[in-house]
Amino acid sequence: MPSNLTYSSQPWSDLRVLDPDANGVVTIFLARAEFHNALTVPMLEDLIQIFSLLDRDDRVKCIIVTGDGRMFCAGVDLKQGFGKIGRTPETHRDAHLFTTAGTYVTESQLVRDIFSEITDSPAAVIERAQAIANEIATNTSQVSTYLTRELIWRGPSNPEAAHLLESAILHRLYNSGDFKEASAAFINKRSPEFHDSMENIVPKFAPWWSHGRDTEAKPQPKL
User: Fold this and answer.
1) Cα(32)–Cα(99) distance, integer angstroms
2) Which N-terminal stretch is annotated as signal sequence (predicted)?
């Protein structure tokens, strides 16, 4: 992925994307405030492309998705003709929130478990999101975070195979720059500065990784 790729200059459909900041945080804005940021088909297609690009960009460590105006997102724009919506049990299970056309306080049993944290104002939401994103980006290793997630998602179901794969990954990471940096930061009582990426720490032993890319990833989009 070119390190000089800019996302902010691309003609996204009702979306604004800020380029990675110094900590590797990217912010995506849904930009249809007049329609409460309701999602259209072109927006969804662009979001797929954006996330595919960000996934392969070593500069990116954390992504914030927010919306312009007072509302994050009203859901899909029903005028766009989403014909398959409502065909899953989960949709019907959650339909009470929308079919009643009610307004619920955050303490309501219907919605309180949706939120991990509640802020005092809409403006404070993005500020808190940026603080969390910066904390994640500056205190975690991109490689170890990726491998941990992938082991949970795609790890072998056989205990012996899982142990062998985890052992191989741990052995490889013990020789990585991030491991040495974490050890030095701990000894010197300072914050670590991780720089390893999947491009320079290619785990060839991972069954889903081949030739420097995720073999189960989507076809790469073009700008």
Assistant:
1) 23
2) none
Identity of residue 218: K
Strands (E) across the chain are located at 15-17, 25-30, 62-67, 209-210, 213-214
Domains of the chain plus CATH, in order, are 15-94+120-139 (3.90.226.10), 142-214 (1.10.12)
Record the tokens describing residue 30, joined without a space. 């849904």
Beta-carbon contacts of residue 156 (< 8 Å; ≥ 6 apart): 162, 165
Indicate the pairing of strand 213-214 with strand 209-210.
antiparallel
User: Which pair of structure tokens corresponds to residue 28?
Assistant: 């995506």
Tell me if the pTM is above 0.90: no
Q: Which of 147, 141, 146 is nearest to 182 (CA)?
A: 141
Q: Of 147, 151, 175, 178, which Cα lies nearest the Cα of 163?
A: 151
pLDDT digits (tens, 9 = 90+) for 15-61: 999 999 998 999 999 999 999 999 999 999 999 999 999 988 888 99
Question: pLDDT of 152-173, one tens digit each?
Answer: 888 888 899 889 888 988 888 8
